[in-house]
Design brief:
This protein is about 65% helix and about 0% strand. It has about 170 residues and is mostly helical. It has one domain. The longest helix is centred in the C-terminal third of the chain and has 26 residues.
């Protein structure tokens, strides 16, 4: 007796949430890496659209070490960690392709995109509140930046969500 009501399909594809979660992990892992962040700062023009976008992709920057001895690596990397965790949670909580009147690729795409926008906004808000010198004003400003990042980078997660089944 099956405890889930998932359709039994034999295919090599994962779920839309699973492929979106993998894309979110890769996006944060690659574009948030110290190597990419250093490259983008040295080799892009911040006044051009392409340079601005490439710099924005480095927003969830993480480090393997802490510059401040009073803060651990976790405090510096809280935004990137929260972004991945919240993206996975929202990707599984927003199953619009299952609830939509017309199940289509567009609903999977927009569900993945929206999940990443929400995850980036909440990750920015929580990391600013829980981080050092956390104030509500700074958290609101950080949330604006996080939502901007999620809006412009979320299409990548939305596109990856197209590769899975609902």
């Amino acid at each position: 007796m099956a405890l889930t009501n998932r359709p039994r399909t034999v295919s090599g594809y994962g779920t839309a949430a699973g492929t979106g979660a993998l894309a979110a992990l890769l996006l944060v892992g690659v574009c948030g890496s110290p190597m990419y962040a250093g490259w983008v700062q040295d080799h892009t023009d911040p006044n051009g659209a392409g340079g601005w976008f490439l710099r924005l992709l480095a927003w969830p920057a993480w480090k393997l070490h802490s510059d401040d001895p009073h803060q651990g690596v976790l405090a510096n990397d809280l935004r990137a960690i929260l972004l991945v965790i919240l993206a996975v949670a929202f990707l599984y909580l927003l199953p619009t392709s299952q609830a939509a009147r017309v199940q289509s690729s567009a609903s999977q795409f927009f569900s993945g995109w929206a999940a990443y926008v929400l995850a980036a906004g909440f990750a920015a808000l929580l990391s600013a509140l829980l981080g050092p010198d956390g104030s509500l004003y700074a958290a609101f400003q950080a949330t604006g930046t996080g939502v901007t990042y999620g809006f412009f980078a979320g299409w990548i997660v939305g596109t990856a969500s197209l590769g899975g089944r609902a």
